[in-house]
Design a protein that fits this description.
The structure holds two protein chains of two kinds.
Chain A lengths: L1 H16 L9 H4 L7 E6 L14 H10 L4 E3 L5 E3 L2 E8 L2 E6 L13 H13 L12 E8 L2 E6 L6 H4 L10 H7 L15 E7 L3 E6 L14 E6 L3 H9 L5 E2 L4 H9 L4 E6 L3 E6 L9 H10 L2 H7 L5 E3 L22 H10 L7 E7 L2 H16 L3 E7 L1 H9 L5 E6 L6 H8 L15 H12 L3 H18 L2 E13 L3 E2 L15 E2 L1
Parallel strand pairs in A: 1-10, 1-11, 15-16, 15-17
Antiparallel strand pairs in A: 2-3, 4-5, 5-7, 6-7, 8-9, 9-10, 11-18, 12-18, 13-17, 13-18, 14-18, 19-20
Chain B lengths: L1 H28 L4 H5 L6 H11 L5 H13 L13 H36 L4 H15 L2 H15 L11 H4 L1 H34 L2 H8 L4 H31 L1 H6 L5 H10 L3 H29 L1 H5 L1
């Protein structure tokens, strides 16, 4: 396992040091990109809405990153790069000033200005259905300094805000479209963005089409493709067959069980995109048995993560030492994941007053790979004398059980955020009422460290704080982490110029068809 | 006939009331609500509560049901909570592929079932009959999703004759649309053909044993004439019953087939809506499916009278 883990990290390093990954090495380098063609993309699910401020679905973001643009963007190493903002500065910890790019137009022909940016932030904060409220909670107000400068006033220092603005919370929608179209924007994003592609049509349940933006401000590289056509194909096997038979050119995600077979197929190119995700289980601190720290530790010591990653995830991922994935600058590879140690597990059981073991219920989503993982965990815990009942639920029930703390141990698969803050703060900070802190942990030391990570803006210092946090979390165990998955994407060999960014979003600006 | 239809339509009112009230209660008793499902990432509890108030989800369940009923009586099915689209638009878009698929599947099943059943019944207890029975058992036992994947692998991936998934409307694009429906229709049609074959075979056997068949043969009528005019028409009643029930199931319940072939039908719509706890959408679709079932059963009753005048006279 240690070898494949090292290989994985090496792959991350190699991928992030090569700015453009040609999919067919050797061929891609020799050919110049050419214009034209329609890229056909298969998705696992239908998009939910075209309004980035109202979107709570990952698949929506895949489309957004081609038609909308955020103020700042991510590079392959998760560094922050200019987007619609040319540059930014932080005169003091509570102020963030963005110089906006000039000469950018929305697809409806209106100019992108400081007024437009302010309009977007105000809408995120006040629109009743806005799903962005939590992400922009630290923003107090936005001032227009001049036609292309905005000043963001923060309620409190927020070192993670820049990274948050690389996604939906930083995406700019044409104010004219918002005002004129209202709720209809959810279904029709014509003219709404500034991105390299323009929205054309969305025939619900059939396809969503975008076309090249001929007036795109960035003249370097693409967009090359005439059109991109997204189609929902729900069944994984059918989606794969569609790619193999040439009905689609790209699929967003290959299931671990299919990875080996697809890699052997010469008509398909697979790219392992390391993700930002952390998959785990939350342990309820507010009621027995897991209000008892020794029993939480007994569970952690009983688990064999190596076996879980190998047997369930088929090595399409690595064992997790905590919430921060290997793709992040904050990942500390000197901290090992918790190794299985049955003797220690037994000792902790005795310490927790349950030398003969105990019984609890594990809640997890009724999805094949989750069920498999639950069954492996159940078997591993049994060897330590711990009996587990598995309760399978659908997504809405899982969220409601979690929010109301109606669980003992519950699975939590977090897709991850570019800044480590997004994988850690909201899960462990003491929060009254409902929050993502389902475990209900409230630990002064943890709170202090978490608050410090937001106040310090120096990356090296933040990294040290995160390492300290990971060690503390491995001891306190509000959550037991299992795996940082890899998200393999598969392409037809015709597809060239795709740049894998660990947030998993497929940006097609520089993609072309051979 | 007019009285029969009027009587049946009146009888549907309590059925629909019961169905909608039952679904409403069950849905609200299920853990999870649309706001949690929609705002999984947002941790702002006050925003969630505000939205719940705005959508009226904080009111007691009977009050919510009464409000929904009130809107329904004014012809308004409401809007989807998830994306704000009017339920009626969403449902009417989804009903088309479902209806086309159901009708095509039915046509395929009848094309297969009639010759097989007649051959089986006429050559009762011979090799032909056993072959027919084997086919029927195979069709009944074969799980839908497995058959679908096998068909895709053969006709889509290996031979590349037909598209693997997706939906094109045959009413708009003709042949391309029919092609997109062939594999799913065969998947559903084969299973249905098996059921129809079994039903038709046994009712044909009953009819073949009747005195009027012996009389017809004694009159010297050609065997094919006897089968068509005397046996088949009298054996049709159970088949029509089966088809009537299956039509409703095909429209609302072809979830797995719709899922595998990425067809935007009603079955998938209701399942997705339940997972999203999109209450108005679920209510709207269930109401539609219930109406569909009632309508197809009414159609069956009318057909009974046409096939067998004795039923009409009673």
């Amino acid at each position: 396992m240690s070898v494949s883990r090292r290989e994985f990290l090496k792959t991350c390093a190699v991928m992030s040091s090569v700015p453009m990954v040609g999919l067919a090495p050797g061929v891609a380098a020799a050919q110049a990109p050419k214009k034209g063609g329609t890229l056909r993309v298969g998705f696992y699910i239908e998009a939910a809405t075209m309004d980035p401020h109202l979107s709570g679905s990952k698949v929506d973001r895949q489309v957004y990153h081609n038609i909308y643009e955020p103020l700042v963007t991510l590079d392959t190493k998760l560094g922050i790069r200019p987007g619609l903002a040319e540059s930014w500065s932080q005169p003091d910890p509570r102020t963030l000033v963005f110089k906006l790019r000039r000469g950018v137009r929305f697809h409806d022909g209106t100019d992108f200005t400081a007024e437009a940016a302010k309009f977007n932030f105000d809408r995120m904060k006040t629109e009743p259905k806005s799903v962005r409220k939590g992400e922009v909670a630290s923003i107090d107000s936005v001032d227009v300094v001049d036609s292309h400068t905005i000043k963001i006033n923060l309620k409190r220092p927020d070192a993670a805000l820049l990274a948050t603005l690389t996604d939906r919370a930083g995406m700019m929608i044409s104010p004219k479209v918002v005002q004129e179209r209202g709720a209809e924007l959810q279904r029709n994003a014509k003219g709404a963005g500034t991105g390299p592609f323009e929205f054309v049509e969305w025939v619900k349940d059939a396809h969503l089409v975008i076309k090249r933006n001929e007036g795109y401000w960035n003249r370097q590289g693409g967009p090359y493709l005439d059109r991109v056509r997204y189609r929902p194909i729900l069944d994984d096997t059918v989606k794969l067959q569609s790619l193999q038979s040439g009905e689609i050119d790209v699929m967003d995600y290959v299931q671990p069980r299919d990875v080996a077979a697809v890699k052997a197929d010469k008509n398909v190119v697979v790219l392992d995109v390391p993700s930002l995700a952390a998959f785990a289980y939350q342990l309820n601190h507010q009621k027995p048995p897991f209000n008892n720290k020794a029993l939480r530790q007994a569970v952690a010591y009983s688990l064999d993560l190596e076996q879980i990653v190998k047997g369930v995830w088929l090595n399409v991922g690595v064992p997790a030492n905590g919430p921060i994935p290997p793709t992040s600058w904050a990942y500390d590879k000197s901290i090992p994941y918790i190794k299985r140690d049955l003797a220690k597990a037994k000792a902790r059981l005795a310490e927790g007053g349950k030398p003969g073991g105990f019984e609890f219920t594990m809640t997890t989503a009724n999805i094949p790979i989750n069920v498999q993982e639950a069954e492996v965990i159940q078997a591993q815990l049994r060897e330590a004398g711990i009996t587990t009942k598995i309760k399978l639920v659908d997504a809405a029930t899982q969220l409601s059980d979690g929010n109301s703390r109606n669980f003992e141990m519950i699975s939590y698969q977090w897709s991850g955020r570019p800044d480590p803050d997004g994988n850690i703060y909201q899960f462990f900070r003491t929060t009254p009422g409902t929050s993502l802190n389902w475990s209900g942990i409230s630990n002064p030391k943890l709170d202090e460290l978490l608050d410090k990570t937001r106040e310090v803006s120096n990356q090296a210092e933040r990294k040290k704080l995160y390492s300290e946090l990971i060690r503390l979390l491995q001891d306190e165990l509000p959550m037991v982490y299992t795996v940082h998955p890899v998200e393999p994407k598969a392409f037809s060999p015709r597809v060239q110029g795709y740049e894998p960014i660990p947030d998993g979003m497929m940006r097609f600006k520089d993609v072309w068809l051979k | 006939m007019g009285r029969l239809i009027a009587h049946r339509l009146l009888a549907t009112i309590p059925v629909l009331l019961l169905v909608t009230a039952g679904v409403f209660a069950l849905l609200h008793l299920t853990p999870g609500d649309p706001i949690d499902a929609m705002m999984a990432e947002s941790v702002d509890a006050t925003a969630k509560d505000a939205l719940r108030r705005e959508l009226g989800l904080d009111r007691p369940i009977p009050v919510q049901y009464a409000a929904w009923m009130g809107r329904l009586l004014r012809g308004d099915l409401g809007r989807s909570i998830r994306n704000g689209e009017p339920v009626i638009e969403n449902v009417s878009r989804r009903i088309r592929p479902s209806l086309e698929l159901a009708l095509l599947a039915m046509a395929i099943s009848l094309t297969i079932a009639f010759p097989v059943a007649i051959a089986s019944a006429v050559h009762h207890n011979t090799g032909v009959d056993r072959l027919g029975t084997t086919f029927a058992l195979f069709g009944i036992c074969m799980p839908n999703f497995l058959l679908a994947l096998l068909l895709i692998f053969l006709f889509g991936v290996t031979l590349r004759w037909l598209p693997i998934s997706g939906y094109v409307d045959p009413l708009e694009e003709g042949w391309a649309g029919v092609r997109s429906l062939v594999l799913p229709a065969v998947t559903l049609g084969l299973a249905l053909a098996a059921v129809v074959t079994r039903t038709l075979r046994s009712s044909l056997l009953d009819a073949l044993a009747e005195d009027y068949v012996r009389t017809a043969r004694a009159k010297g009528l050609a065997e094919s004439h006897v089968i068509r005019r005397h046996v088949l028409k009298n054996a049709l009643i159970p088949v029509v019953t089966v088809l009537g029930l299956q039509l409703g199931t095909l429209i609302g319940g072809a979830v797995i087939t719709e899922y595998v072939f990425a067809l935007p039908g009603v079955g998938r719509l209701v399942v997705d809506a339940v997972f999203a706890r999109d209450y108005p959408l679920v209510q709207g679709v269930i109401l539609l499916i219930a109406v569909g079932f009632i309508a197809s059963n009414l159609l069956v009753d009318v057909l009974y009278g046409w096939i067998d005048p004795r039923i009409r006279l009673r």
